Amino acid sequence: MKKYISFALMTIALSFGFVSCDVETDEEPGGTNVEKMAGRWEVTVDAFNSDGAFYKDPYGLGVIEIRTYNTADNSSTQMWLDDVNHFWQFKFKTNINYEARTFSNEAVDYDAAGTGKAVVTNGKILEGAAKSLHGMPNDSIVFDIQFGDDKNELVYRISGQRYTGFKE
Question: How much is the pTM?
Answer without folding.
Answer: 0.81
